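Table 4 source record.
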Amino acid sequence: MLSLEQSLRAQRASPQERFEQRAARFGVEVATRLMRLDEEEQDWNRRLDAYAAALPSARTEQERARLQEHWFTPEERLRLEAALSARSQH
């Protein structure tokens, strides 16, 4: 049996559909929090994509550091290499 999240991904549900199904199952407050998490994840992935695309042009460690500073907070930079590594494994 698929979980609700697996089902929503399989359906390629829109943000509104995701919210409605989550709200029906868990309530509006939980659905709202999950919607925010979805938005944060999308933003992280967008920035990670942009960084990965720009990385080949970074010839020095300084250029790479500038890219990281542009796209990520100091806290996010701590998990940056792990995120890129996880992506390359899929």
